[in-house]
Design goal:
The protein has ten helices and no strands. The chain has helices at about 5-25, 30-35, 45-60, 60-75, 80-95, 95-105, 115-125, 130-145, 145-150, 160-165.
Length: about 170
């Protein structure tokens, strides 16, 4: 956090707590309003942007979410969550192929992060490339077995599960 006075830090914390509370209650517009009440010079702070990204997700504001995720990725390139958020937003704004390109680009930087393989498997499955989807799922499951539970109910992977029933 930038060097803030105790008063500025207190005001910022108040707005962030309120916005988080609203978001937790499913009141994304109110969360956004709280973030807008933050002094303009503090709105670019990373903790503000991280929360704004979550509000954008709740509001289905994909283009803005992608812009924020891209900014965060540049500011904190060591955080694998940022390219994952970027791909999530781009998928909804532009489709699986563009989102997959984001993940393919970032994936080598985070070889131990199973969500890159998992999300790529979802994109491949939606595109009908079930062989590649299965390979990527196996890779993700080998890194994090708990993803098997998530995968069972993932609508993107219906084609994968159906393919096991095909003769």
């Amino acid at each position: 956090m930038k060097s803030l006075s105790p008063e500025e830090r207190q005001a910022l914390s108040k707005h962030l707590r309120a916005a988080t509370g609203y978001l937790d209650l499913g009141m994304a517009e109110d969360a956004w309003s709280q973030l807008e009440e933050i002094e303009a010079r503090h709105r670019g702070l990373l903790e503000v942007l991280r929360l704004r990204l979550e509000v954008c997700r709740a509001l289905n504001s994909w283009e803005l979410m992608a812009e924020i995720a891209n900014h965060l990725h540049k500011a904190e390139p060591q955080d694998p969550g940022h390219p994952l958020h970027l791909a999530y937003a781009i998928r909804r704004a532009h489709g699986e192929n563009e989102a997959a390109a984001v993940l393919e680009d970032a994936r080598p930087k985070f070889p131990e992060e199973p969500l890159f393989s998992y999300n790529l498997a979802c994109y491949r499955a939606v595109a009908g490339n079930l062989t590649e989807a299965k390979r990527l799922l196996a890779e993700a499951f080998s890194m994090d077995a708990s993803l098997r539970i998530t995968a069972l109910d993932d609508p993107d992977l219906v084609g994968v599960w159906d393919s096991f029933n095909d003769p």
